[in-house]
TrEMBL record:
It comes from Paraglaciecola agarilytica NO2. It catalyses: tRNA(Ala) + L-alanine + ATP = L-alanyl-tRNA(Ala) + AMP + diphosphate. This is Alanine--tRNA ligase. Residues 3-467 form the Alanyl-transfer RNA synthetases family profile domain. Belongs to the class-II aminoacyl-tRNA synthetase family. Consists of three domains; the N-terminal catalytic domain, the editing domain and the C-terminal C-Ala domain. The editing domain removes incorrectly charged amino acids, while the C-Ala domain, along with tRNA(Ala), serves as a bridge to cooperatively bring together the editing and aminoacylation centers thus stimulating deacylation of misacylated tRNAs. Its cofactor is Zn(2+). It is an enzyme of class 6 (ligase).
Length: 467
């Protein structure tokens, strides 16, 4: 019998715990002390200071299953959702970490043993990439592990060289790919067809071995470290004999629940995948304290919710539907993440209010957009229209882009940005006017107070005379 996603998560953590790694809980999606990071997007985030050497822990090896969101910010997979078999806005990253303890050789051996012995993946389906200059990694993969030369691909781009920032810890990576078979379109890494779904990256091993200086010098780190990340949903797909993350247990159940709620029977619809993806990121973001708003993290959340609502609408949902999926999500993931049950009412409420608010303008906005698209000449939606939909109907630009893309069109992002800039200028003027207005209001109020005092005085005088 194939393993459930929950069993795979457990198998990973236990494998590394048996090898002396401390099990560490997932940290929040909202990074606690890193304002440069929009959302937690990798297992290593919570260990950043340990890698930098500014924080000490009682252990030198750790393992975790980290919840991650890649929407907005530097890593943005929002546009990939619904289009590739392997990207989510929310996913779990399994990782093992060494803080100056074991290094390259051991990290490669652990990864290989876990995949081929613990999970029993056929070796011939795996291939690896290394950084072009990393001969040491080549020797380990080839001479010690026994991977044939033609299955070790040298990559010269930053895809295989990781760095924390412009300076500081950095080093080459080695990634493990799985071949889902000839019947699926796509080519191995490093080829023009690599963005297909045949060869899927499952595990990234980062070898932190240099400390990049401001002048570009790469000094060797005194204690090289290891950071790895494997997508739980991607490894589940392999073990459950399916070729898309959206066909694994958790997603199939969420997709079925969505279909039932919106009242559709065709389980293949792309929109179902999008909604099933988005309920995870939205619920986990809310449970980690993010609230929909017009800026920063809250605006990313709002954009994801609105996108989900639009896709639900497209599927034929009658009335508010999105919040109803929280129950199905809690059933799927509540054991691993009890907060989904504890906070279910809050999550549902926030999603419901947000959807109700957006529903009021969604239909009208869609009519206007569809009308405009049917009359459109050329392939680019004008920035003015994208702006109008944003300003009047609450359509985030990425939502309009999503609709346009479905029809083979794109949006004029520059024109949209320009319209936004003009709007900001107008708002600035309006707030100057506000100042004058406030000034006026203050003097009006003052005269009211003066009048009030006078009246009081008159009243007092009257009282005196009456006595
Ligand atoms: P890809 O090239 O497929 O976009 P990546 O190189 O951006 O992946 P890494 O930053 O190396 O990914 O993250 C480590 C692992 O996390 C990946 O090997 C993959 O298994 C998983 N992963 C990354 N992004 C996503 C995503 N959006 N959804 C699901 N899993 C992901
Ligand atoms: Mg990526
Ligand atoms: Mg990659
Ligand atoms: Mg990668």
């Amino acid at each position: 019998m194939s393993k459930s996603t929950a069993q795979i998560r457990q198998a990973f953590l236990n494998f590394f715990a048996d090898k002396g790694h401390q099990k560490v809980s997932s940290s929040s999606l909202v990074p606690s002390d890193d304002p440069t990071l929009l959302f937690t997007n990798a297992g290593m985030n919570q260990f950043k200071d340990v890698f930098l050497g500014t924080e000490q822990r009682k252990y030198t090896r750790a393992t975790s299953s980290q919840r991650c969101v890649r929407a907005g910010g530097k890593h943005n997979d929002l546009e990939n959702v619904g289009y590739t078999a392997r990207h989510h806005t929310f996913f779990e990253m399994l990782g093992n970490f060494s803080f100056g303890d074991y290094f390259k050789q051991q990290a490669i051996a652990y990864a290989w043993t876990f995949l081929t012995q613990e999970l029993k993946l056929p070796k011939e389906k795996l291939l690896v990439t290394i950084y072009s200059e990393d001969d040491e990694a080549f020797d380990i993969w080839h001479n010690e592990i026994g991977v044939p030369k033609e299955k070790i691909i040298r990559i010269a781009t930053s895809d295989n060289f990781w760095s924390m920032g412009d300076t500081g810890p950095c080093g080459p990576c080695s990634e493990i790919f799985y071949d889902h078979g000839e019947h699926i379109w796509g080519g191995p890494p490093g080829t023009p067809e690599e963005d297909g779904d045949r060869f899927i990256e499952i595990w990234n091993l980062v070898f932190m071995q240099f400390n990049r200086q401001a002048n570009g010098d790469m000094l060797p780190l005194p204690k090289p470290s290891i950071d790895t990340g494997m997508g739980l949903e991607r490894i589940s797909a392999i073990l459950q004999n399916v070729h898309s993350n959206y066909e694994i247990d958790i997603f199939q159940n969420l997709i079925k629940a969505t279909a039932e709620i919106v009242g559709t029977s065709s389980l293949e619809d792309k929109s179902l995948r999008v909604v099933a993806d988005h309920i995870r990121s939205c619920s986990f973001l809310i449970s980690d304290g993010v609230m929909p708003s017009n800026e920063g993290r809250g605006y990313v959340l709002r954009r994801i919710i609105r996108r989900a609502v639009r896709h639900g609408n497209k599927l034929g949902a009658k009335g508010v539907f999105f919040y109803k999926l929280v129950a199905a999500l809690a059933t799927e993931m509540g054991d691993a993440y009890p907060e989904l049950n504890e906070q279910r009412a809050v999550i549902e409420k926030v999603l419901r209010v947000e959807e109700e608010q957006f529903s009021r303008t969604l239909e009208r906005g869609m009519l206007i957009l569809n009308d405009a698209l049917s009359e459109l000449e050329g392939k680019v939606v004008p920035g003015e229209l994208v702006f109008k939909l944003y300003d009047t109907y609450g359509f985030p630009a990425d939502l309009t882009n999503d609709v346009a893309r479905e029809k083979g069109l794109s949006i004029d992002e520059e024109g949209f940005e320009q319209a936004m800039a003009e709007q900001r200028k107008r708002a600035q003027k309006a707030s100057n006017f506000d100042l004058d207005y406030n000034e006026q209001l203050r003097s009006d109020l003052e005269s009211v107070f003066v009048g009030y005092e006078l009246e009081q005085n008159t009243a007092q005088i009257k009282e005196i005379f009456v006595q």
